[in-house]
Amino acid sequence: MALPSLREELRLTPGATNGNGSPAWVMHDPVNNRFFRIGWLDFEILLRWSLGSAEPIAAQIRAETTLHALAEDVDALADFLALHCLIRVSSSEGVSALQNRARERTAGWRQQLLRHYLFFRIPLLHPQFWLARMVAHLTWLFSGAMAGALVLISLLGLFLVTRQWDVFAHTFVDQLSWSGLLGYAGALVVAKTLHEAGHALTAARYGVRVAHMGVAWVVFFPMLYTDTSESWKLTNPRQRLAIASAGIVAELALAALATLAWSLAPDGSLRNALFYLATTG
Question: What is the dihedral of CA 68, 70, 73, 78, to 10 degrees?
């Protein structure tokens, strides 16, 4: 049976190696912004997809590589591609199948309500243009000197807090009020905004496109989010880890700076605001 044609806009990029040392690739579907990790055998099959049928592809792979490919492997990959709509649809039957699948996904108001009740996202910004301009001027944020300075600031802030521990503890108790809750809510917004900015800037530093930023609602609870799904294109796992952890690092840096500033600030509204930021972070 002839194999279906692949969609022309699909992109393959090298991925991080598997745990056993074998190579891997990432297939990007730009229309749906989805990523699929494939192994060596799948890659070799796709390289020979133009041969048109399963047995010739498997035979050529056996002849040219050390892989023991079978026609069943090719058919399995074809089924996977069809399941995830990665093949070109040109026949009326294929179009009808896609339409039926779309109707199944949207049918049933109860299922739709449940799905959107549990999770939905509202994109607010498309920041890629501004991130590309900003990151060129903020390389110092990612330097070793900056990391060392933040460690020293953290230690100094904690040391100064221990010398004012009674004041710090009493301030925390005094803020357990309605006005204090509003202060913590404001500090939480600042901290989480910085959290997402950390993800976005780190992604831009490594050349990853940030498609959008916005608010995600999880069981009607709002949470800021940053779409860094394209970080799967990066082959260096340290870079992917840096993007994933950048939000936490940004919040810790905010807490360190706010703690030191609180220790040095005079009594007043500014010191209260710094206290909210320090304890929230």
Answer: 130
The closest alpha carbon to 78, from 134, 158, 165, 6, belongs to: 6
Which of these, 102, 189, 174, 153, lies nearest to 261 by C-alpha position? 153
Cα gap 197→203, rounded to integer Å = 10
More confident position, 87 or 281: 87
User: Helix 269-280 vs helix 178-205: angle between axes, to the nearest 10 degrees?
Assistant: 60
Q: Hey, how many other C-beta atoms are within 10 angstroms of the C-beta on 109?
A: 8
Those residues whose C-beta lies under 8 Å from the C-beta of residue 172, and which sit 6 or more positions away, are 275, 279
The identity of residue 91, as a single letter, is S
First-last CA distance in the chain: 60
Q: 87-95 long-range contacts, Cβ below 8 Å, gap at least 24?
A: 87/4, 87/5, 87/6, 87/7, 88/4, 88/5, 88/6, 88/7, 88/8, 90/5
Pairwise CA distance, residues 60 & 57, whole Å: 5
Give per-residue pLDDT as tens, 252-280: 999 999 999 999 999 888 888 899 999 88
Burial of 220 per CB tally in 10 Å (0-12, 13-18, 19+): exposed
Query: How many residues appear in the chain?
Result: 281
pTM of the model: 0.73
